[in-house]
Every structure is written in C-alpha cells, then in structure tokens.
Amino acid sequence: MAEAYKGPTRLMIGGEWVDGVKGQTIDVLNPFNATKITAIAEATEEDVDRAVAAAKAAFPAWAKMAAHDRGALMLKLADAIEARAEEFIALEALDTGHPVMDARRLDVPRTVLCFRYFGGMADKLRGDVLPVDAGFLNYVKREPIGVVGQIVPWNFPLMFTSWKLGPALAAGNTVVMKPSELTPLSTLRIAELALEVGFPPGVLNVVPGYGHTAGARIANHPDIGKISFTGSTATGRSIVKASAGNLKKLQLELGGKGPNIVFEDANIPMAVGGSAFAIFHNQGQACIAGSRLMLHESIADAFLEKFIGLAKSIQLGDPLSPDTEMGPLTSKMHLDRVLAYCDVAVEQGARSCAGARRLMIRRWPMAILSSRPSSGPSRATGFRARRFWPVRGGDDLQGRRGSAGRGQQHRLRVGFGAVDQQSDPRAPLCRRYPRRHGLDQQLQARAPGFALWRLRRVRLRP
After folding, report:
1. pTM to 2 decimals?
2. Are 328 and 376 within 8 A, CB to CB?
3. Distance CA 190, CA 284 (A)
4. Please, which residues have CB within 8 angstroms of residue 276's CB and are 6 or more apart in sequence?
5. What is the pLDDT of residues 351-386, one digit of tens each?
6. Beta carbons of 277 and 460 less than 8 angstroms apart
7. How many angstroms separate the Cα of 211 from the Cα of each of 46, 74, 144, 254?
8. Is the distance from CB of 55 to CB of 79 less than 8 angstroms?
C-alpha cells in the first residue's frame, strides 16, 4: 500500500501545488510497521505567509459569491469524497492506524455528511432584527470574518478537516489549514478534490508543518481573523497568548479526562459494551474518551470481570485488515509516552488488571489500571491528566454523591458518560435523563454522554 500511494505531497497555496520555501520535507510513516509511506513538503513561517496572502486575495470574490453557489461546490466535494470512499478508508487506515471497519462506519460517512450539512446551510444563514425604541432600527447581519486559520489534530484528520472547513467555507471565509505533520494525507487529498470540483484558487490552502513553526505563525499572523484549533490544553493556552496581537476570534477544542460512571442499577452487559467503546475506540486517542471508569462498589467486581474479559478478546492487528478491531497508536513518540505514564501510574499505587500487550514493534499498549482502595490512590498521575491512551483507570464509588465528587477531581472535563437503570433503551423516555442532567451540572462537563457510549463494533461484546 505504501508503494501505491500516489496522492499529493506538496503544499496547496493559491490553487497550486508548491514546495516549501526552505525545501524541507517530512517523512510520513505507517504506524503499523513504521515503514515510510511518503515524504511531504514542510511548511514554515514563510509558507504560511504565502498561504495567508493567497487566502486574503481570494476572500472578496468568495465572500460575494452567491451563497447557494458556495453550497453547491461543497455538495460536489461531498459527492467526490463519497465516490472515492474506499480510497479514503484505506488512506485513513494507512496514515493514522484506524481500523478499516471504523473508517468505513464512522470517519468517511461522517465526513461526507458534514460537507453536505454545511453545503445545505450555506444559503440559510440569517440575521435578526432586534426590538428597540421607535425611530431606531437595530439589526444583526451575519458576515464572513475573512481568513480563518485552522489547525487539525492527528487523531481524526479526515473528520476534523470536514468539521473545520464546512462551517468556515459555508459562511464565506477563506482558509489556511495546517494538518498534523503525522497524518496529513487525507487533508491534502481533500484539497486536491476541492480544486477538481471547482473551488476557486486561494479559497482553501493547506500547509502541513510543525506546530512551533507553521502553527505558531498561524496563531500570530496579523491577517488571520479567527483560529480554530483542536489539540492539547497547553498548546491552546499558547495560541490564546499568540492571538492577542490582533485580537483574533478563537475556537478551541482542548483535552479532557472524562469520567465514565456506572451506577449500581445499571444494565451490566450494556454498560460494559459502552464503556469499552468509550476507551478503546481509535485506540483511546479521542478527547472525549472515557478513560476514568468509576464503578459503584456493589457492582465493581462483576463489572470488571466482564470488562477485562472483553478487553482481552479485542482483535489487534493491521488496520487494513477487515478483522482488526484495534489498530496501533499513531506514532512511536506517543506510544513511548503512554507506556511511560502506565509505569508511573503503577509506581504511584495503581494495580494492573490486564497487562499491557506489546506486539510486533510495540504499537499496542492496552491495560486496565485500578486505583481501588486496596491498591492505591485515585490521584495517581495517569488518572488525573489527559493521556490519549487505550488505558482505562478504575475506581470504586459508594454512592451518587461520590461519583460527582470523584469526577470533579479532574479539572479537564470535555465529557463524561453515566450508565444506570434509566440508560436502558427499554425504559420510558421520560425517565432516562433527568437524574443525569443533575450530574452534568455538578461535573460541569462540556459534552455529557450519559449512555451514549454504546457498543458500535459487532465483535466487541462481553
């Protein structure tokens, strides 16, 4: 597959494929076997400047284009991606390590749907007229910002490309996008298709490079009016500081340490399946991963027995194989960091319930760590901070107040999951959510999941 890669490898600036000013390249590796897929051009500060200039020049005509025409181009792009679904499925598995079963069911369909959604929204953006005193007219008119800088993370590059491009382009903005240097291939391919379906030159510019060079320049560039960033909280703070020069608008999606709470009256098989999906989907490399498992003490032993059994049954392997349920972590650097945190957690008192499995070139760490009272404190490093790992930390609860209190120990809460008797789909709809909305308020979670972390892989069953 690596030898067969024929996609774009250069920077997309002003509708042309160009090399970086400094002529440097970055090797893109297959996370499964560490072989080289290709080498891409590296964008540096000067290349970001060129891309911003192209986007700025393209903005007036793009913003004035009839909204339905902008929408029509986005719908054509969605059709083009859908027509090449198998290509994108293989590309995402090759570049990121996502199993093809996940890319086929989630990544590619959601990407297509996102472009279609915002393609349909392009001519439906409305303003408002506000009631004021007689003699005055006060109205709100929605206008594009201008050049938008977008920084895409490495964990779901295909979907994030659509999630960021869709609303920005529909509203009439032009874009300078920096995909991760680790997983840039699907973003570059989308840029190629955008040109093919008729997007004007300069509307979309793609500059893969490193965060401390290309990313930093996007953050402080005076002609970029807004930044959309998904990544670590530390980098998000740096972007906030760098963007102060021209008071950029910011949209930041940062990290979290989501508690996954299972109450005493939960349907155990359903809770086990949902909890497994919450932590093992995409190898745990998700900002809303349910990496902190919080169990009511009365069901903890029964739950863990089934959960550990399920974890041990997961089929690891080549993400291009249709039988693989979990692929490798996306980079060796990340793998080494995850393994180091596992070691630290054990040193601080956590107990390993299912030992880490390191196969082939050690691409698959997977463990279940318990901080139950008999084995150590729940304040171990691995339980507190966002780690982007397929490692589940476990803790016992004595009641619902305890669940909120333990969940609040972590300042980074992008989301959480809660499973109880009311999560059962057979329960009346009016009974499923009220109690858990109160927990949402106590935890101050940004994206409550309730019982939405449910099993989506047929083979992952307790």
Report:
1. 0.82
2. no
3. 26
4. 307, 310, 311, 314, 455, 460, 462
5. 665 544 444 333 444 444 444 444 444 455 545 555
6. yes
7. 14, 28, 26, 15
8. no
Q: Which residues are catalytic?
A: 253, 287
Measure the CA–CA gap between 266 and 211, rounded to whole angstroms.
Answer: 43
How are beta strands 174-178 and 249-253 bridged, if at all?
unpaired
| Spatial separation of the C-alpha atoms in residues 191 and 197, rounded to whole Å | 10
Q: CB-hemisphere CA count at 13 Å for 420?
A: 18
Angle, CA 56 vertex, CA 52 and CA 59 arms, to 5°: 135
* CB of 73 closer than 8 Å to CB of 371: no
Strand, helix or coil at 261?
strand
**Rounded CA separation 43/207 (Å):** 5
Per-residue CA distances from 367 to 255, 294, 387 (Å)? 21, 16, 13
Following DSSP, what letter does each residue of 353-398 receive, concatenated? EEPPP--TTT----EEEE--TTT--TT-HHHHS---SSEEEEEEES
**Mean pLDDT confidence for 48-70:** 98
